Automatic annotation (TrEMBL):
Gene3D superfamilies: HUPs (3.40.50.620), Ribosomal Protein L25, Chain P (2.40.240.10). It catalyses: tRNA(Gln) + L-glutamine + ATP = L-glutaminyl-tRNA(Gln) + AMP + diphosphate. Keywords: Aminoacyl-tRNA synthetase, ATP-binding, Cytoplasm, Ligase, Nucleotide-binding, Protein biosynthesis. Residues 455-528 form the tRNA synthetases class I (E and Q) anti-codon binding domain. It comes from Flavobacterium humi. This is Glutamine--tRNA ligase.
Length: 695
């Protein structure tokens, strides 16, 4: 793997260290090991991108292994959904494996452990065992069955396997240490009795291995070199290694478990149990409801694989848990959709507008561009007629002062409002207007260049395609619904879905499920599978621009809009006094921001554009001026990246800002002292040199 193009995260550093210590690159093998007891969510997406990304970077195989050791909760439906999600994200696995492939090997190893006196059958109730387990500060008590003879244990275990006992009558435990400070080492359960039909092995087995016993051994059987999991499995590592010690052959690769932090997403939950509860209690329509944090839900909503991969890369891998604002995910989605979606016209709250001086029965097919982001511009034809639909809000924005107001119809003509018709409730049912025949867009006429108050979108009435449009909001009203004292269900947003009846332009009549569009001036939308030949159904994917639904609106606008705009102006302005004003404003704006998640997300986002001097300056300013972001909370590989690319920047402003950051922060200065000395020896710019204040 090349380390010249990017800094390594701590996971990659572990792999690189193992390679330096003699592990052959040919023996690198990774895996993604989901349990098929639910649909995958956004947290799994990060783990998928991590493991399969490592496979790509190191040109090593990655297995997709289903840890299917609990038939009471696992189904083939979940297996199929998981495979579909991984493929949709753009990854291919080397081998499809299952823990159930190894049930016989696991059983045979267990028999050998019993023979060696390292496992025994316990016949106590779960309540009795829990009492004997002890506490973190108090040793456990041996089970009265801990010293059963090998013969009796073998006999009972065989009879458990043969189905002679009811569920709960016996369990098999590893004999380790009831006084261990790690409570997971206090004779953990290896097998339990379950009279459940397995989705692959049917009724062949009446006993099933526990996850801790099956997981590491499955890694070993597949010769996985590195087993990466989330932080809650850190205490399990000691047990993972103990089990491997019992079977390890020095001629084979020994898997290494290492842990990374969960990246929780705001305004959602990422527990499969809680996601299932949302489905079963019908707070949502299913696992793939577009409001869900599942990969299937995000796919149905219109998110793209590239946007999710970019999101995973942006938030990175860390050693500490962090709450990621959902707006960062939405930013990644919006950024990708902007590049790939055609611009079309859709009216979500239509009111009819009649152009009184347009010839009856006449129609025109006007030219409209598809996407200005395209390298080679393409166009489509849209029909125009005497009667069109416009957005009610566009007209109402004039209040009662509409007479003689002019607006441009996108890709068409300038019109002037004349009159309205209202029903008995005062609701506008029809608007009348006239058009300027010489004002056709693109004609080059003097009239076509006339400035008007606004440009609005529209849809021709006789050509309109009926549409049901589903407008989605956050599923939860709270940023962290999962960490409150109340049940997470109390924070379900009752207004998370609003359905409206609208119309879309004629070019969409053949649109298919999954097709994505930008509804001009509104947002990004995706065709839903519920569409019929009479009515297209669209899911709103994300707003056209950043929207904020919490009290951090001002801070988020500062980080995403105002400061970047001012940085751009800062680089363009050569007036030194003006530059000083900008610098004072940057310091004031950034130091006032309280939300550390927004600050961290802004830092990570700017680190994606390391060759852009504006992004590098912004990232350095966040560290330099923020009073609420602890630099030690930031991943070391991101700091390495900031140091290396800033130090190599052609902009002396960027280099000076970076040196100031690393000089003023004791943690950074002590960590990078030698590198700073090297930079100072190479630096020639006086403005940068004066920032090396500690040398």
């Amino acid at each position: 793997m090349s380390t010249k193009e990017k800094s390594l995260n701590f996971i990659e550093q572990i792999i690189e260290e193992d390679l330096k210590n003699g592990l052959s690159p040919a023996k690198l093998r990774f895996r993604f090991p989901p349990e098929p007891n639910g649909y995958l969510h956004v947290g799994h997406a990060s783990a998928i991108c991590l493991n399969f990304g490592l496979g790509i970077d190191y040109q090593s195989p990655v297995n997709l292994r289903f840890d299917d050791t609990n038939p009471a909760k696992e189904e083939q439906e979940y297996v199929d959904a998981i495979k579909r999600d991984v493929e949709w994200l753009g990854y291919k696995w080397a081998e499809e494996r299952y823990a159930s492939d190894y049930f016989q090997e696991l059983y045979d190893w267990t028999v050998e452990l019993i023979k060696k006196g390292k496992a025994y059958v316990d016949s106590q109730s779960s309540e009795e065992m829990a009492k004997q387990k002890g506490t973190p500060t108090q040793a456990g008590v041996d089970s009265p069955f801990r010293n059963r003879s090998v013969e009796e244990n073998l006999d009972l275990f065989l009879r458990m396997k043969n189905g002679e006992f009811e569920k709960g009558a016996h369990i098999l435990r590893a004999k380790i240490d009831m006084a261990s400070p790690n409570m997971l080492m206090r004779d953990p359960i290896m097998y339990r009795i379950l009279h459940e039909k397995h989705h692959r092995t049917g009724n062949k087995w009446c006993i099933y291995p526990m996850y801790d016993w099956a997981h590491g051994e499955s890694d070993y059987l597949e010769q996985i070199s590195h087993s990466f999991c989330t932080l809650e499995f850190l205490p399990h590592r000691e047990l993972y290694d103990w089990f491997l010690d019992q079977i390890y052959d020095t001629e084979k690769v020994r898997p290494k478990q290492r842990e990374f932090a969960r990246r929780n997403l705001s305004h959602t939950v990422v527990s499969k149990r809680k996601l299932l509860q949302l489905v079963e209690e019908k707070h949502v329509t299913g696992w793939d409801d577009p409001r869900m944090s599942t990969i299937s839900g995000m796919r149905r909503r219109g998110y793209t694989p590239a946007s999710i991969r970019n999101f995973a890369d942006t938030i990175g891998i860390a050693k500490r848990e962090n709450l990621i604002d959902v707006s960062l995910l939405e930013f990644c989605v919006r950024e990708d959709l902007n590049k790939i979606t055609p611009r079309v016209m859709a009216v979500l709250d239509p009111v009819k507008l009649v152009i009184t001086n347009y010839p009856d029965g006449n129609e025109e097919w006007l030219e409209a561009e598809n996407n200005p982001e395209e390298e080679t511009m393409t166009f489509r034809k849209v029909p125009f007629s005497k009667e069109i639909y416009i957005e009610r809000e566009d007209f109402l924005s004039f209040n009662d002062d509409f007479v003689s107001k002019e607006v441009r119809l996108k890709n068409a003509y300038i019109i002037q409002f004349e009159a309205v018709t209202k029903d008995t409730n005062g609701v506008i049912t029809e608007i009348k207007a006239t058009y300027d025949t010489d004002s056709k867009s693109g004609s080059g006429s003097e009239a076509s260049n006339r400035k008007v108050s606004k440009t609005i979108h529209w849809v021709s009435v006789p050509h309109a395609v009926n549409a049901e449009i589903r407008l989605y909001d956050r599923l939860f009203t709270e940023e962290s619904p999962d960490t409150q004292e109340k049940s997470f269900l109390e924070f379900v947003n009752p207004n998370s879905l609003k359905t409206v009846k609208g119309v879309v332009e004629n070019s969409l009549k053949e649109a298919k499920e999954g097709d994505k569009f930008q509804f001009q001036r509104t947002g990004y939308f995706c065709v839903d599978r519920d569409s019929t030949s009479e009515t297209l159904v669209f899911n709103k994917t994300v707003d056209l621009k950043v929207t904020v639904v919490n009290n951090d609106k001002k801070e988020e606008n500062l980080l995403k809009l105002s400061i970047p705009k001012n940085i751009n102006s800062y680089f363009k302005n050569n007036d030194l006094d003006k530059k000083s004003e900008f610098e004072a404003a940057f310091k004031n704006d950034i130091s006032a921001i309280q939300n550390t998640n927004l600050l961290l997300n802004a830092f990570n986002t700017n680190m994606n554009s390391v060759n852009d001097k504006k992004s590098l300056l912004f990232a350095n300013m966040i560290l330099n001026y923020s009073n609420n972001l602890d630099v030690e909370e930031i991943e070391r590989d991101k700091i390495d990246k900031l140091f290396n690319f800033s130090g190599a920047s052609q902009s002396n402003i960027v280099r000076a800002e970076m040196v100031e950051v690393f000089n003023n922060n004791n943690y950074l200065f002590n960590s990078y002292r030698e590198q700073l000395l090297d930079l100072r020896e190479k630096e020639t710019d006086p403005m940068v040199l004066e920032k090396f204040t500690k040398f």
